């Protein structure tokens, strides 16, 4: 019994030392990328794991600004990487996958109210369908400062397809948006966060400059631009506290040099 107490005590002490080290170590320098989907109060049979209510989202945006974060785009990141501009002290990229209509009706006004930027990754074969963004909405969003990217044509996990189909999903989604009057699409989001080692080269061949994963952590200019790390922000069950913990987790993983490959189901 005394031995068990000793071991538990030692483990608790070690944990306290580890947590203190994490807290006292200066925050790592890097670009934080956040992953969202719906911005909506609506719920579904699964509890809407990918939906953040507008009130919660507003609190998150306000917290980011209070903490000194400045939103940038993927193109800003790449321009800075090439020495063509300076990044702010605490850069953050807000990304939104799939292209839901609430990104236009709810999200866009909230960003504009705060002078913030965002990047929307569109599943191109969903454009114009019920609940998704229309071509006119996409053009208006781009004209109002929203960066648009590709989330493939059909939102199939690319690792389930052969190389020819993977290239087709990458190429056709980009061309379809550009042919319909949108500005050049330079950034890509892997559906379900699924990728393999050959995809960065395929994206480069299709003239993309960046791609985002579902792996948590911060990004630097040394990070492979086709494997940028993102912090997923799902439905917040514990309010702003959960949001803060998710940001802390990404910082901690970066401090520890851990890259966690997550496939979103």
Short description:
The protein has 265 residues and is α/β, with parallel strands linked by helices.
The fourth-level CATH homologous superfamily is Glycoside hydrolase/deacetylase
Principal-axis shape equals globular
- Sheet with most strands: 6 strands, parallel
Number of individual domains: 1
CATH topology grouping: TIM Barrel
Uncertain parts: 2-27, 260-265
Order of helices and strands: HEEEHEHEHEHEHEHEEH
Q: Could you tell me the radius of gyration in angstroms? A: 20 Å
Termini Cα gap: 44 Å
Percentage beta strand? 5-15%
Structural class: alpha/beta
Task: Please give a handful of descriptors for the protein shown.
41% helix; 10 strands; disordered N terminus; TIM Barrel; globular; alpha/beta; two-stranded parallel sheet; disordered C terminus
